[in-house]
Amino acid sequence: MYNDHRKGHKFDWITIVIFLLLVGFGWVNILSASQEGVVTDYFDLSQPYGKQLVFILLTFVLIVLILSIEAKFYERFSSVIYMVSIASLIGLFLFGKNVNGATSWYAIGGMTIQPSEFAKLATSLAVAKYLSDIQTNLKTLRDQLRSVLIIAIPAMLILLQNDAGSSLVYASFFFVFYREGIQQVYLIFAVIIIALAIITLKFGVLITTIVAAVVLAGLYIFKKKKKPSILQPLAILTICIGFSFGVKYFYSSILKPHQQNRISLWLRLEKDPEKLRQMKQTILYNLNQSEKAISSGGLFGKGFLEGTRTKGKFVPEQHTDYIFSTVAEEWGFLGSSMVVILFVILLTRILYLAESQKNQFSRVYGYCVASIFFIHFLINTGMVMGLIPTIGIPFPFFSYGGSGLWGFTILLFIFVKLDSNKINEW
Amino acid sequence: MRKLLLFSTIIIVGIIFIARLFYLQVYNKDRYNIHKDNAIKKVFVYPKRGYVYDRNGDLLVANQSSYDVMVIPSKVKPLDTLEFCNLLKIDTSEFKKKLRKARVYSPWLPSPLLKHLAKEDYAALQEKMRKFEGFYIQKRAIRSYQTTIGANVLGDIGEVNEFNINKDSYYQMGDLIGKQGIEISYEKTLRGQKGIKFIQKDYLNRDIGPYKEGLNDTLPVPGKDITITIDSKLQEYGELLMQNKRGGIVAIEPSTGEILAMISAPTYNPNLLVGRERSKNFTVLYNDTIARPLYDRGLQAMYPPGSPFKTLNALIGLQEGVVNPNEKFSCSMGYRYGNRKMGCHAHRSPANMNLGIYESCNAYFANVYRRVIDNFETPGVGMDAWSEHVKSFGLGNYLNNDLSVGQPGKVPSSRTYNAAYGKSRWSTTYTLSNAIGQGEILATPIQLANLSAAIANRGHYFTPHIIKHIENDTLPSNFTTAKHTTIDKTHFEPVVQGMRDVYTKGTAKYVQIPGIEICGKTGTAENYTKINGKRTQLTDHSIFVAFAPMDNPKIAIAVFVENGYWGSRFAGKIASLMIEKYIKGDITRTDLETWILNHTLEHEYDKPLSGQPFDINGDAQIMLKSDYDKQHNSILN
What ipTM score was computed for the predicted complex, to two decimals? Predict the structure, then answer.
């Protein structure tokens, strides 16, 4: 403690300023999206903007708390925090409250808490702890499986609670593993799997087979030294075809119709204009309204509290998942691209800080933070502007919700704390 | 390398997102238009349509409220159709038909479902309207006629069609627009400017308050009241006289060009084209292709003007200096040229100009006309000089007035005959019918009334117009500046005297009005129709033009009665009665009035349709209205 004081807490002010800007601007937009008539009391607790303002104020208490705890605490207690978090996810099966089909909330008094928002930071701590362990070697399959298990447990629990979107966030840990040394082949594998899946859905199994065969044949022919047996590419081809059929089966038999529709829309598989028109009225409704709101904003936007589509509540869930459409409508291209740029700066800043950590725990944790923010940013913003299929996860610091705001804040500020401590590391 | 994967992904995603936002918000976007934003409801506030008064200040056209049930098909929720239909007083199949029609027009835009609700139905419906989503009641102002006359003058308003909407974006479905008469001519003056209120709506289409506190809203500008030049008492009297006849009357005040009366017969009650029954009644009127009540004979019917045109030839002769008023021409029951003859009737011979006019001597005018044309080096040049004189009286062209319909008529020139016979392959005698107003000349009654006004003014006229006063506005200068003819003022006296003598000694001797010095000229126009493809002559049209008094004329008039035979038989009597009515206010020649009211020409109009052979002109019988009605009823029974 004495050392800390002497050498000072070098908190990274760039991160903190961007955080404040995002939270402040986020609240302004929640006010726009949720206000009805004239706002007389910004602390009106019956309204989302009133509640969010309280959440934001409480966030500052939380920040002070996080920053005043000793940095080593997070590393030492990461396992405990992870266990508690897993327990809270399991507890949902017994005491959880079902909202919109997902059993993701505890109702305590008048408040609801969503443990999955906190599970992300607990998992990040656990992953950082495990990977920074001197005995862990990510090149070995055993340690790879253990690492995956750390993220798979919360991801599966959340998936079982019917919150597919939140469980998808755990895919972001791939970036962490890759940074920390899993084999190159996993990245190649990931790219091939994604490519095969998309080609299968878009063009069918036959085209996928032909593409795979041509690529493999090319690789085989041009391989100069040490030609392997012809059986090897044939085996790979067979696996590809099998995978392709698997994707097809998964899409048509396992996915629910609404999930199928989202993918079919994303890949522009539906061509029948009549059916497309119907979709626009139903499952595409949100996206359609969101795109309308965004494009009606124009270059300069309609002005604060002047968004006609926001006021009319045309975009469902606008103060939560679709908050970015409010930004775009009222603040125009200037405002919306500003938010994108702020996020990019925040993410790259975290990455930069993570790389500069001497302590591996801090570095891995920083990477986890950047990856999680990135996947939220990618999926949410991409969905709102129609680039990614509809997946309901919040926009960090903008979307309404106490659990989300606190989860993201704790996630970020533990890193700010760890970063501030790097001068004390050796 | 491994450090760069997430970093580069973040940068790429950031760039893609900004590009996408640029595409959505800047590149691929119409300029934001509040009128196209379906989050903003546009509520139109319709202003009062301007009232119409006659020249004496009598209110002719006012407004009344009307309630339309409107529907926006996409917003219709399942409803108790039976209850709704009972309230609307229509049956369910009709309801479904109307709803389907509205949906075909547009599922998103309002269409009228049921127009012009009765007041008591409106009250009952108003209470329950909120139960029927997607429907609402639109209040509109429709016309309320304070009179039963002047349908052709007053016109009517009706719903805009898609043509109107495409032409002028001011209008939208269900709006009312002038369809005929002054409602067309003064549409923009009368309608005013509708106001607009912008209302913020929510996703359930509920109003949640004014958009930007009403900053962009506009107030309606009320339509301006107008006063028209029509004397409604004279108009009414003219319509009465023209009952059971077809034709037109146009009366003008020579000193101003104001149209005092403009009658087209048969006509109809303007109240027929108001409210719920409008389209039904309009269809009936429109489909009457025999009597053609929607056809304004005073403005649109082109006839050969006949003898009244002779006055113009006399004026041209004087102006060109080819004839002296005292010079006499002999007439032996006609005018011989070559081996042909233009017939005339028995009268004193030889005739000077005065006698020529009041006896309407064909030979006299044939001589004058030939001299005019032959005074020039070639008939072509002469024809054109003559044509210019004629046109200076407003003939052969639209009068450029403020009436919604009209016809140019026709005045021949050298070009006409060059086209017919070949260049220079014709001579003056080929065109001799022009001397007596037959042949190639066509004129509408309003043009003849204007000719009469120009003679009454001794050489100039004012464009005949119908507008007398616009609230807070001035009249166009076109209506207040005199148009001068090519004839010098001094040449008019002999012609005016001739027209006066038509009344004192000539063809209109029996339709004199005591105490009023009327100048006039009778006319008779041959006419033909096609029966089963065969050209068949019908009884002549009866024509009369007049002005009175001789000095300081107050009224100039042209009367045209289809198949009325000679000029003074119908048209002359009517002209005299109209003049007396206007100048004196009441009628002393009640004998003339009774005769006109008791006689019908319906039997003449039945002839070409009867399929039987029929007599015309001299052999045709005059018929009492009562006899016709008796006969007609017996046929019907």
Answer: 0.92
